[in-house]
Write a structure and sequence with these properties.
Largest interface: A-B, 106 and 106 residues
CATH superfamily of the largest domain in chain A: MoaB/Mog-like domain
Oligomer: homodimer
Number of domains of chain A: 4
Distance between the termini of chain A: 27 Å
Helix content of chain A: 10-25%
Mean pLDDT of chain A: 93
Radius of gyration of chain A: 31 Å
Number of helices of chain A: 7
Number of strands of chain A: 26
Strand order of the largest sheet of chain A: 7-4-6-5-9-8
CATH class of the largest domain in chain A: Alpha Beta
Shape of chain A: elongated
Strand content of chain A: 25-35%
C-alpha cells in the first residue's frame, strides 16, 4: 500500500489544468488567473494629493505666511494653471497637484478667510504628495498567474483598467455514487436502505473548492449501471466515484469500468479512514474512487480531491495545511497507516487545544459534521500523553 | 472618535437577520441555516455490518469451527431468514445483520470453500456491528440553527433525509462608489481620473462573505447623483458607499443623503487606515460609509462589512480572528488609533513570522493585494523590537 503523500503525488502528476476562458471582472473572484494581469495605466496617473488641503510652494509657505487661493482642483478636475509665489490651490485627496506646487499643506494646518489662507504649520517640499506611479507603472505585472483571485486582486485588476480577465475554466467534476442500498433524499427508501449522502456532500465540497459538480444518477450495483454512469461523465475533467472500491463481492466499480478502458494507477493506500482509495483513468477521463463510508469519503476529499481540483484549476495542488495544537487527552500508538482523527478545538490564549472524539467509526456522519479539526498521526507514531504537541488540519467553515 | 470594537458593536446592534427561504440541498452549502435540521430517520436503520464478512453466532464461531453459508445479504438486500447454530450469512459493509446472528466475522479471518467457511480467528459477540442509531436517532437535532452550512453538514442533512433546507436569504448589499474622478474599467478616463476599483473589490468581498452584491452606477460628486444612488438601493439590506466620507468640500455623501432621511450613528473612528468610517441609516436602510481610499475601504470591509453581512445572514457577526506571529523587524510606537498594518508572512516550524511592508500608504492597492496579513496594533502600543509577539489577522485566499 502506498503512502498518503505518494498517492497525492501520483494523482497530481496525472492531471493537467483546464483551458482559459474570458470572464468579466465581476465573475473573476475565486477563479484562477490564467494569464498575468499587466497594468494598462500608471497609478497614480500624476502626482496627487494624499490629503485634503492646499497645493503650495514649500519655500514660500512657512509658518505665518499668507497665500492667495487662486483656484480649486477637486479630484477629477485638475487645475489648469500654475501655482506661483504667494499662491495656493485648494486640493482634495486624489487631486492632481498643479504645476508649480511642490507640497500639500493639510487643511488642518491652514486658516482660510476671504480667498486667503494663513499657514499655521510649515510643510516640507514633497509632503502629502503621492508620486505618479507610486502604486504601479503602466505595463508592470500586477498579478502573476496562476493565482486564485481574491477580492483585493479584483480591485487591483480594476485599478489597472481590466474589465475582463483570463481565468482557467472551472474543472467539471462528475460524481457517481453507487450502491443498491442508497436513495436520494426524500425518495422512497428500500428495506435496510439508507439515504445517499456522499454525492451531495462531495458536490458541495467540489463547488467550495472552485469546481463545477455534476451529480450523476445513482448507479445500482450492476456492471451495466456503473458503465452507464461513467459514460454519462463525458466531458468531465474528473470522475469521482464513491463506494464500490473496497474488496467485497458487491464492489463492482472496477469490474464495471473494465470494459470502458479502466487503467488503475493505484488502489488502497496506507491511511485511515480511507484505505480503499483508487486512482486511475477510464480512457482519457481521470478517475478518483473514494470509499463509500461517508467519513472516509470526506476525509479523502480533503486530502486528495481538493488538491486535484486545485491542479485542474491551474494551481499546483497541495496537501491541506497543518498547524500545531496541544492534545487534551492521551492517544494510543498508531499502526502502519497514517491516521486522520476527528476532533474538536478550543482556543486557550495563543494555542489550540484539540480533543479527539472518543468514537472514530467511519460511519458516523454526525461526528464528522461536528468536527473542527483532524489530528494527523504519522504511521507507527507512538502513544501520546495529554499535553503532547500534535499537527492538525483545521476543518474550515465550509469544508 | 469611537474605538473599532465600539463601532462594530453599534453596527451589529442595528442590523437584523434576513428572512428564511427554502432551497434545495444542492444550493444550501455556504448558506446560513434558519431552522434546525431534525433527523427524519434513524441511522443506521438497523444493526449493520461495519465490514465485509459473515454474520455468525459468536458462541458457535470459535477458531476452527466450520459454518454453512446459508445466504448472502448485500447492502440494500437484507437476508430474510434467521441464522442458527452452525450457520453463517455473507455480509458486506452496510448490510443488515440478520436475525439470530450476534457478530460479524471479517472475511480475512475466514476461509470459504464449497458453501462452507472455516473460522481462522474467533470473534466476540457484537464485533464489527454498527448498532441501529449509532450515528443518530429519528427526531434528533442534527444541525442547530443558525450555522453556515459546510459540505459535511450537507452530507448529514442528506443522510437525515432532507431534500430541502430553510436558510436565511442572502443579504443584498448595494454598493455606491462616488466621485467625479472615477471611471469603470475599460471606459474613458478623464484628465487626472482613475479607474474605480472599490466597487468591484467590495462586490467580490460581499459575495465571498455570503451576500449578494448590487453595484450601483457610479455617482458623480453632486447632491442629486448621490441621492439618486441611494434611491436605487431600494430593497437592499445594506447600502455601502465608498468615498465622500472624509472632511473635504467634495465629500458630499452626507449632504447628498440628508434629504433622503440620513440618520448618522457615528462618523470617524479611531483606526488606521480608515478613520472616516460612517454608519447610520437612510430611512430604514442601514448605511455603511467606507473611506474612498481602496486600502482603507478593504480593511474596513474586513473589520466591519464582513461581520455586518454575517449578522444580516443570521449569524452573530464577529471581529476577524487573530493569531500570534513573530515580528521580523522593529515597529515604532503606535498613536491613539488602532492600526492595521499590511504585511507578508512566512512559516518557520510552527510559528508565523510577519514582516510589515515598509510603505503603508493607503493609496497602494498593489501592496494590499500582495499582503498576507494585517498586524493589529492597539492604540498607544509602545514600539516593538524584532522578535516581538504580535497579533495578526490572516488575509484568507479570497478576502
Amino acid at each position: 500500500m502506498i503512502s498518503v503523500d505518494e498517492a497525492r503525488r501520483l494523482i497530481l502528476a496525472a492531471l493537467a489544468p483546464t483551458g482559459a476562458e474570458t470572464v468579466g471582472l465581476g465573475q473573476a473572484a475565486g477563479r484562477v488567473l490564467a494569464a498575468p494581469v499587466l497594468a494598462r495605466l500608471t497609478q497614480p496617473p500624476a502626482d496627487v494629493s494624499a490629503m485634503d488641503g492646499y497645493a503650495v510652494r514649500a519655500a514660500e509657505a512657512g509658518k505665518g505666511a499668507t497665500l492667495r487661493v487662486i483656484g480649486a482642483a477637486p479630484a477629477g478636475h485638475p487645475f489648469e494653471g500654475k501655482v506661483r509665489a504667494g499662491e495656493a490651490v485648494r486640493l482634495f485627496t486624489g487631486s492632481v497637484v498643479p504645476d508649480g506646487a511642490d507640497s500639500v499643506l493639510i487643511q488642518e494646518d491652514a486658516t482660510a478667510e476671504g480667498g486667503l489662507i494663513t499657514v499655521n504649520e510649515s510643510c516640507a517640499a514633497g509632503k502629502n504628495i503621492r508620486r505618479k506611479g507610486q502604486d504601479f507603472a503602466a505595463s508592470e505585472v500586477l498579478i502573476a498567474a496562476p493565482k486564485r483571485l481574491t477580492a483585493r486582486d479584483i480591485g487591483l485588476a480594476a485599478a489597472g483598467n481590466h474589465p475582463w480577465l483570463a481565468v482557467h475554466r472551472r474543472p467539471r467534476v462528475a460524481i457517481l455514487a453507487t450502491g443498491d442500498e442508497i436513495s436520494l433524499p426524500g425518495e422512497e427508501i428500500g428495506p435496510g436502505g439508507i439515504v445517499s449522502s456522499n454525492a451531495h456532500a462531495l458536490a458541495a465540497f467540489v463547488m467550495e473548492s472552485g469546481g463545477e459538480a455534476v451529480i450523476l444518477p445513482i448507479a445500482k450495483d450492476t456492471l451495466e449501471a456503473i458503465a452507464a454512469g461513467a459514460a454519462a461523465a463525458k466531458g468531465a475533467d474528473l470522475l469521482v466515484t464513491t463506494g464500490g472500491a473496497s474488496v467485497g463481492d458487491h464492489d463492482l466499480v472496477q469490474q464495471g469500468l473494465a470494459g470502458s478502458g479502466l487503467a488503475l494507477e493505484f488502489w488502497k493506500i496506507a491511511m485511515r479512514p480511507g484505505k480503499p482509495l483508487m486512482f486511475g483513468a477510464v480512457g482519457e477521463l481521470p478517475l478518483l474512487g473514494l470509499p463509500g463510508n461517508p467519513v472516509s469519503a470526506m476525509v479523502c476529499a480533503l486530502l486528495f480531491l481538493r488538491p486535484a481540483i486545485e491542479r485542474l484549476s491551474g494551481l499546483q495542488g497541495e496537501a491541506p495545511a497543518t498547524e500545531p495544537a496541544l492534545l487534551t487527552t492521551a492517544m494510543k500508538a498508531n499502526d502502519h497507516r497514517e491516521d486522520y482523527v476527528r476532533a474538536t478545538l478550543t482556543r486557550e490564549g495563543d494555542a489550540w487545544r484539540v480533543t479527539p472524539f472518543p468514537t472514530q467509526d467511519s460511519g458516523m456522519l454526525k461526528t464528522l459534521a461536528h468536527a473542527q479539526a483532524l489530528i494527523k498521526r504519522k504511521p507507527n507514531e507512538p502513544g501520546l500523553a495529554p499535553g503532547s504537541l500534535v499537527q492538525i488540519v483545521r476543518l474550515g467553515g465550509r469544508d
